[in-house]
Amino acid sequence: GLPGIQKEGCDGLITSARWVVHRMPAHVRTVCLEFFGNARDAVPGIVGIIDFMFAEQKRSGVLLAGLEHLDDRYLKAVGYATKSKRAATGGGSGLPKMVLFGDIAGDDADAVARAASEVVRLANHRGGEGFVAISAEARKKFWLDRKRTAAISKHTNAFKINEDVVIPLPRMAEYTDGIERMNIELSLRNKLALCDALQVFFAQGNLPLGKQDDAQSINSAELMEDRVAQAQSLIGQVRDQWQGWLDDVDPLFAQLQDHRLRASWKIQLQAPLRGIFAGVTFEPILAECAAIHKRVLKGRVWIALHMHAGDGNVHTNIPVNSDDYDMLQTAHAAVKRIMALARSLDGVISGEHGIGITKLEFLTEEELRPFTEYKARVDPEGRFNKGKLLRNTPLVDPSNQVASPNLMYADLTNAYTPSFGLMGHESLIMQQSDIGAISASIKDCLRCGKCKPVCATHVPRANLLYSPRNKILATSLLVEAFLYEEQTRRGISIKHWEEFEDVADHCTVCHKCLAPCPVNI
């Protein structure tokens, strides 16, 4: 976790360190820049701002202390409140297409103010709007949204595929367009899956109907008449249109990107189906259609971006449900495309996250060779992280001293991800005990640790057990132990309840942790 140090597949011992301490500048202003419309037109504004601030640093000593980017998906996840009075063009969501947060710092108050004003003017030139915070409190409020980015995976119980790439800033617009195209394709494929699921529902027969009184009692076959045929025809027509958009995504990209063409469940399917199945009798059919949409939508994969805009380090995140195999496979295929896109733009496939087992399959033999040779030289017996990042290197099973094919994987090939989607006996146990309520109250925790600094029972010099995050981790482990013992019929250990009490005893119920929490636990 040390800045500038990546251990990759090695381990080492730090024997000495030298720290450089910087004096804080006397004056800091925070700018918030909102860009509406097409991201391709807005992203070059980043390059213009950075170029200006580099020149300004040489001229007056005022520097750009930080520049962070959030795309519209992150803005939605963090509950961003648009500062501009201008509504977003095209999408109708009211959210900007992207937002930049930056700190402009220096010892000359007038120079800092002039630089901040010029940065806002540069944003205006790119169709954006800028806002400047001067006081410490106002600056803190501006940065709060950036600190809540972990909320992007709230709907998947904090599970996401977290990749980072570095893109040359002049080509960042091409990268955002490439990601947007992937998102459009993923959305259309999810919509096509919805159409297929609806067709299966209407084709199976025995559709659910509501209760009828004697005066309205009609033979169900007569009641349905051609309604099912109308619904199937509607779904087929809409599916053909969406499939056509997917097939021609290249020529139609601009129209799909700015929502002149928009695949809408509510407008193109739900509203017409309500017209076809009007009346109380058909409410169960419409309810099942809505339930099908909800189930299919839960498996939709999409990609969100936030970046350290000053150096082109882009965090490319894909929230996924760990119990949905198809969703995980779709996300992994998207990661492959992301890596290929980054390389095609003269970027690299990792930044501050380093090169580890998740990136191994995307590395060439030429890129791996220096590490392999170094590892053989400094650790010939493989005592540190045996086999890690050593592709196709057989490892010896210590039990029989024979190379095992199951030990040849240096990446995540043999990894298993436990699921948060509890089924069967566990669900029943949780419903019949307070464990279900306890688990539901903490399931959205993102393990970000922003609750630690304000917690009265988090005292690092004593121990690290009782920060809110760690108490949630402990509670999750206790829930697992409870479920295990309940299912194995061993009886519940009293010690578990003692541990629950210990967790509860180390909370003053002050609620100070609620304010910094991105998901309001």
Question: Could you please describe the fold and organization of this structure?
Answer:
It contains 17 helices and 9 strands. With 521 residues, the protein is an alpha+beta fold. It folds into 4 domains: 24-147, Alpha-Beta Plaits, CATH 3.30.70.2190; 157-354, no CATH class; 357-407; 424-505, no CATH class. A hairpin with a 4-residue loop joins strand 6 and strand 7 (313-319). Helix 6 packs across helix 9 (249-257) and helix 6 (172-203) packs antiparallel against helix 12. The mean pLDDT is 84.
How would the blueprint of this fold be written?
Elements: E1 27-35, H1 39-42, H2 44-60, E2 63-71, H3 72-77, E3 98-106, H4 109-125, E4 128-133, H5 136-147, E5 160-166, H6 172-203, H7 220-224, H8 227-247, H9 249-257, H10 265-276, H11 283-298, E6 304-308, E7 313-319, H12 325-344, H13 365-378, E8 395-397, E9 402-404, H14 424-431, H15 435-442, H16 468-488, H17 494-505
Antiparallel strand pairs: 1-3, 1-4, 2-3, 2-6, 5-7, 6-7, 8-9
Elements, N to C (H/E): EHHEHEHEHEHHHHHHEEHHEEHHHH
Total beta strand runs: 9
Count every helix, treating DSSP H or I runs of 4 or more residues as helices: 17
Strand arrangement, major sheet: 4-1-3-2-6-7-5
Largest sheet: 7 strands, antiparallel
Tell me the fraction of residues in β-strands, as a range: 5-15%
Q: Provide the number of structural domains.
A: 4
User: How far from one another are the termini?
Assistant: 26 Å
The rounded Rg comes to 27 Å
Estimate the helix proportion, in percent. 40-55%
Return the structural class.
Answer: alpha+beta
The low-pLDDT segments are none
Q: Please tell me the overall pLDDT.
A: 84
What shape does the CA trace take? globular
